[in-house]
Amino acid sequence: MRFVLPAALALATIAAPAIAQTQPGAAVASRVTAGTYAVDPAHTQVTWALNHMGFTILEGQFGASEGSLTLDPAKPQAAKVDVTFKIDELSVTSAKFAEHLKSKDFFDAATYPTARLVSTGVKVMGNKAVITGNLTIKDQTKPVTLNATFFGAGTNPMSKKLNIGFRATGKIKRSDFGVGAYAPVVGDEVDLTINAAFTAQ
């Protein structure tokens, strides 16, 4: 019996690369075709993180409700991104705290249920890009810069449609958008991580 576990582990180690190779998506630019892609709400989210009073890092998420990506591999600098996020469905680890964040003390989600990111420029460098754009939260629109990486492309085996994915990071200040001004002891700088998935039409 003592040889069963090592043998199983060895088989798992051998099988792992094979399983990974069956993934339909990969960062292969030649798989991308020109067109307009719709955002995939189930696989697109913004994770935000900020310093909570010097005690810990607080994180939460917003999902996407709608949006699009228009691009042409022959003219990558002309790409356009427009994505709307659901502020009124923000997610944190406590339901009670989520309601507090959605209150008028912070996002006032009843009045401003969504946020929107619209690109104004794209500078492509291989599989990476710097995206400049306008971010609107609580009717306050400010410029934002995102460092994006092409994550993968391929035919989704479920939908049979071409999928494209990106990961991006950036920083904003919550004070620029009037979020939680009454809580100055909470960090003003917010780190953003965006995982964005798009599906061919």
Report on this structure.
The radius of gyration is 20 Å and the shape is elongated. The chain has helices at 4-21, 95-102; strands spanning 35-39, 45-52, 56-71, 80-86, 114-125, 128-137, 140-155, 162-173, 189-200. Helix content is 13%, strand content 49%. The termini are far apart. This is Polyisoprenoid-binding protein YceI. Keywords: Signal. Pfam families: YceI (PF04264).
List the helices and strands and how they pair.
Blueprint: H1 4-21, E1 35-39, E2 45-52, E3 56-71, E4 80-86, H2 95-102, E5 114-125, E6 128-137, E7 140-155, E8 162-173, E9 189-200
Antiparallel strand pairs: 1-3, 1-9, 2-3, 2-9, 3-4, 4-5, 5-6, 6-7, 7-8, 8-9
Sheet bearing the most strands, described? Answer: 9 strands, antiparallel
Poorly predicted parts: 1-14
H-E string: HEEEEHEEEEE
Number of strands: 9
**Please, how many domains?**
1
Helix content: 10-25%
CATH class: Mainly Beta
Q: Could you tell me how far the N terminus lies from the C terminus, measured between alpha carbons in angstroms? A: 54 Å
Mean pLDDT: 91
Helices, by number, come to 2
Shape: elongated
CATH T-level fold name: Lipocalin
Percent of residues in beta strands?
Answer: over 45%
Quick description:
The chain is mostly beta strands and 201 residues long. It has a single domain (27-200), classed as Lipid/polyisoprenoid-binding, YceI-like (Lipocalin), CATH 2.40.128.
